[in-house]
Amino acid sequence: MQDLDEIYDYIAVSLQNPIAAKNTIQGIRETVADLKTLNDIGIKLTLPSQIETPYRFIQSGNYLIFYRRADCNVFIDRVIYKKRDYIQVLLGE
Questions:
Q1: CATH number of the structural domain spanning residue 45
Q2: How many Å separate Cα 24 from the centre of its chain?
Q3: Would you call 45 exposed, middle or buried from its count of C-beta atoms within 10 A (0-12, 13-18, 19+)?
Q4: What per-residue confidence (pLDDT) applies to 1?
Q5: pLDDT at residue 59 in the model
Q6: Is-contact 43 10, C-beta < 8 A?
Q7: Residues 6+ apart with CB under 8 A from 55
Q8: DSSP code of 10?
Q9: pLDDT tens digits for range 42-62
Q10: Low-confidence ranges of the chain (pLDDT < 70)
Q11: CB of 9 within 8 A of CB of 17?
Q12: Which among 21, 29, 63, 89 is least surrounded, fewest beta carbons within 10 Å?
C-alpha cells in the first residue's frame, strides 16, 4: 500500500529513525489484522453536515486507518496522519 510506503519513508528517511518507522508500520499492520475479526470496532466517518459516508476508521498510534465493509470483507482505503485534514485527503472536499 502506497500510504504505508510513504509513512515508512518519512519516518525512516526524513526523521532519520528507521526503528520507529518499522514499529509504526508493524503497529498499523497489527491494527489492520484485528479488523479481519472485529470489523465493527471502528468509528463511522460522518461529515460535519451529518452526512454519513461508507467509511469507518480506527486509530493506530498517530495514524487513522480508513476502511469500508462489504458483507464479510474489509477494504482498507487509506492510512492518514491524524493531524492532516483527512476529510480533504479522503473525499477531496
A1: 3.30.2310.20
A2: 12
A3: buried
A4: 79
A5: 96
A6: no
A7: 44, 45, 66, 67, 68, 77, 90
A8: I
A9: 999 988 888 889 999 999 999
A10: 93
A11: no
A12: 29
Q: Count CB-CB contacts under 10 A for residue 81.
A: 15
pLDDT (0 to 100) of residue 67: 95
Domain span including residue 45 = 2-91
Question: Pairing relation of β-strands 43-46 and 63-70?
Answer: unpaired
Q: How many residues does the chain have?
A: 93
Task: Count structural domains, the chain.
Answer: 1
> E strands along the chain, which residues?
43-46, 52-60, 63-70, 73-81
Give me 33's grid cell: 489484522
